Amino acid sequence: MIERHLLKLRARDSLSAEEERAIRSAIGEVRDHQAGRTIIRANVELSESTLLLDGLLSRYKDLRNGQRQVTELHVPGDFADLHSFTLKRLDHDIMTLTPCRVATMSHENLKRITEEHPHLTRVYWFGTNLDAAIHREWEVSLGRRTAIARMANLFSELHVRLGIVGLTEGNSYRLDLTQLELSECLGLTSVHVNRVLRDLREQGAVEFRSGRVMIHDLPLLHRIAEFDPGYLYLEQRSR
């Protein structure tokens, strides 16, 4: 059930059999959600964290004028709100972009893990640091990258993150997002997103069609994005 989560953890550190058992035993209720549902709301007291098993989640904030900014996408294997363990509430909402299956882990169980397994404490601390690194990269995109580089960077990042958990087929992967949802990730209008997708396709770098990203020239895509995967901390090392 949580194999993709374990794949993500093992990609960057080793886990003992005892640690894997501790994680599995801490998993609580499994829930299925339809697409387009806000499953965690800002400023609501939380007593559990949510692990994404299948589907795609977004963290987002809405402005008074109705505009929305997505601040991160979560793929299977990610905790969407591990930081709520210490914060106890979020300053943003979390929504399903596709039909999703999630598992919960109570904060009581997380507390037990951190007290009984110091290495897992560091592993999960690293996970929240990784989320922060992804946030910083998205901030650079929104603040300084051109529209085409933003899109190329997003496609490059997701190719890596989905590959870690076994959800790519070569240089192709599912991404069931609308152009509106892409615009909310990239800080662009839907019209601009359409134009950027056309430019990337005409350059022979990547094509996005019917919910699938098909990368035709990965080195070119990375050059357009100025993509450096260092912020994803892909090396496996003891924490």
Give an overview of the whole structure:
- The protein is α+β, with helices and mostly antiparallel strands.
- The protein has 2 domains: 3-138, Jelly Rolls; 144-232, Jelly Rolls (Sandwich).
- Helix content is 44%, strand content 22%.
- It contains 9 helices and 10 strands.
- The chain has helices at residues 3-10, 17-26, 84-87, 107-116, 118-144, 147-164, 179-186, 190-202, 218-225, and strands at residues 27-33, 38-40, 48-54, 57-62, 68-74, 93-96, 100-106, 172-174, 206-209, 212-215.
- The strands form 3 sheets. It has a 4-stranded antiparallel beta sheet. A 3-stranded antiparallel beta sheet has the order 1-7-3. The chain has a 3-stranded antiparallel beta sheet with strand order 8-10-9.
- Helix 4 (107-116) packs across helix 5 (118-144).
- The protein is globular, with a radius of gyration of 18 Å.
- The protein starts with a helix and ends in a 14-residue tail after the last helix.
- The mean pLDDT is 97.
- Indicate the proportion of strand residues: 15-25%
Helix proportion = 40-55%
Q: What does the radius of gyration come to?
A: 18 Å
Please list the strands of the largest sheet in the order they lie side by side.
2-6-4-5
Number of domains: 2
> What is the tally of helical segments?
9
Main beta sheet, described?
Answer: 4 strands, antiparallel
Overall pLDDT confidence: 97
Structural class: alpha+beta
CATH class of the largest domain: Mainly Beta
The general outline is globular
CATH superfamily of the largest domain: Jelly Rolls
- Provide the succession of SSEs: HHEEEEEHEEHHHEHHEEH
Q: Per CATH, what is the topology of the largest domain?
A: Jelly Rolls
What is the count of β-strands?
10
- Using the 3D structure, state the CATH architecture of the largest domain: Sandwich
